[in-house]
Write a structure and sequence with these properties.
Length: 320
Amino acid sequence: METKWLEDFVSLAETRSFSRSAQLRHVTQPAFSRRIQALEAWAGTDLVDRTSYPTRLTAAGDTLYDQALEVLQTLQNTRAVLRAHTAPSDDVIEFAVPHTLALTFFPTWATSLRKGFGPLKSRLIALNVHDAVVRLMEGSCDVLITYHHPSQPLQLDPQHFDMILIGEEPIAPYAKAGGDGEPIYRLPGTAAEPLPFLGYAPGAYLGRMTDLVLRQAGTAVHLDRVYETDMAEGLKAMALEGHGIAFLPHSAVRAEVRGRKLASAAPRENPDSLRMVMEVRAYRKKPSRREPAKGLTQALWDYLGTQTGGPAGDGVQEHP
């Protein structure tokens, strides 16, 4: 039995909705349902009354709910004690950042901070978007830096989390540049000769953004997926070797475009039709009397608020 099954079950017991709990747990509804069924198989009895709406727990489910709360709280307390041994000191800010932003956006952003805010001691944890969000929700980092687009909102309650916009990141198609500086592949391709496509693995955030760009292109795009990975840097490496077209964030290819190693593979007549701009946002848990913010984290948050022209700590309501 996995602890995430208990967390799923507690969420379901509190929301009384499979769909809402799936959103809060950042999984698809079918996957969420399978996890509840796996927990029921482990328990050897039905925990959910599926004949009623809103969803109700069975008598066995009510019993497990009380026990699950105790088990999860005990594990949470134990983890807090263990992490206290390795927690960063108050003069270090711990950032949770998706891999691509960690490799491209964050170093440049940190340089700008040094110029305006001053020297900053930091610890960076590079994760996928989902796990970075979980880090923040569990209180295992001070600041989350991540992408945002209205089509893929984060389920972060503005009553409990602050947000500040710290940048923008376009994503667009790129291919290896030939000797003349032009891309060796250029969209849209044809049905008879589709262009080799370097795509993101299923579930990758930038993959969902790429899918949205292609759906909204307004013209037929002909691609043949020849390679996939969940890392933008991996796709860039393949594009540099001439293996195909990849949709990449601008910060990841800035140097290669400047050095004429990569070139935009967008259609000449309408290059912006295959370009999308994402926001780069910083989030933190709202401080409280019980859990005040580190002094350094609060100072950074106040500074970022002055740079964006808005008050630090404004929450933004997210809807699925």
